[in-house]
Amino acid sequence: MSSMKIGTRLTLALLLALAPLLFGRMYVSVRRSATVYVNDLEREMRATTRSLALEMENDVLRNEWDEVDDILRRMTDDTTKVALFKKDLTVMRTAVPGDAELIGRMMESRAADPEASEFQKRLGNTDWLARVVPLRDRSGNIFGYLLVAQDWTEVREDLAARTEASIFISIVIIAVVVALIPLLVRRYVSRPLAELSRKVTRFSDGELRDRYSGADEVSLLTEEFRKLDEQLTVARRDLLARHRRELELERSLQHAERLATVGTLASGLAHEIGTPMGIIRGRAEQVLHGEPVSERARKGLEIIISQIDRVSRIVRMLLDYGRSRESHRSLCDVRQIVSHAMSLVETEAARRHIAMTPDLGEEPLVAECDSGQLQQVFVNLAMNAIDAMTPQGGTLHIRARSGSDGEAGMLKVEFEDTGPGVPPQHAARVFDPFFTTKEPGNGTGMGLAVSQSIIRDHHGEISFESGSGGSKFRVTMPRAPVNGAIAHTAPSAKEDLI
Fold first, then answer.
1. Whether residues 292 and 385 fall in one domain
2. 109 falls within a domain
3. Calpha distance 175→163 (Å, rounded)
4. Fewer CB within 10 Å, N side or C side of the chain?
5. What H or E segment, with its residue span, contains residue 146?
6. pLDDT at 327
7. Considering the entire predicted model, what is its pTM?
8. For residue 82, what is the domain's CATH number?
9. Containing structural domain, residue 294
């Protein structure tokens, strides 16, 4: 069977499927038509017998035997026999005296089954269908029986002829199908498959030679498509490797471009601001810790030192944004990183009358990431939300969950505040470096830009939605399969944060 061509196999399969259906359909059709035909004849015979029995009852009870004999003569012919029987099933009256023996033999079936009102009897070469109806007097007592028998030999022969005709038609139809199927299969299946096999063979070999041997087309196509799959797999692997190299080159170019711009500014600021600020801070500390000073002067010096530290942090963030840092990544449960980030800002949130409601779920959300960098992102998003709700206070909802059906393999961390939201005219610039909507002195505009850079480096994205009821920042990043140990150590609180 496996060495047969697909056309031959398809032809045999169609024949095996169609032949039983055709024969079954013909059989059901013949049986249905025969049943309807026979039922019609039987209903007609029952109606005739009932009406005849009523008339016979009246005539016999009135002793009008001439009427009875007349009816029997008119109803009796070669195909119909009518007779009256006594209660003991002996013949009372027949139209033809010679029919008494024939009718008596018919009643043998009635004697064998007294309850039968309708039965069939074959006598010689004749099939008879007989119906027996009891005759009753005025009190309802049975005093005799009426027998009506019809010759059904022609009916049986007609049914047999119909069956033979149906079988013949079925055989003709199957013969036509047997003749057409191979032609159609050869034209619409075998030839196209053979041509496809030749082309696939040439394509997989890379040569214009014909290896089609006329064997099983499916086996040949399967082998050739297997070769194509191997070749395409190798080509895909090469393309992915080339694409990775191109991405690395593009990232290097982007990083170089940022270094060209930010590096110039950062270097100038570092040299022009860093050194004098360090000297000023040193002198301020010397004065603060030297000779006793007044309380007012001490507070002024502390403000000077804190502002110098703030300037230094701004310069350091600018340098960090342009600097390519080595990332140490491992499998971490993002929920633990979020929890640690919340613990770092909970004191500040409580001081500003802001409630934090975490919803981190029960399911681990594992990602291959740098936990310190992610903590930096989460702390920045939390502080931005806290700043947005100051001074009126509010609630910060923090949620961590898996991606939806359309984002299988992703995880999400959302920070939703109840602040005034981001004005629509500023929505396009939220992630731009140095852009901020905070009051002067309260923000540098670098937090979201650095956070977006970190998340994109983790193959993720930060998006946001904002309205009059608050803003929602959503961190989406790939979820890693748990094949190894998960790092449970949270980042140190002493790490530099935005």
1. no
2. yes
3. 18
4. N
5. strand 142-151
6. 64
7. 0.38
8. 3.30.450.20
9. 219-303
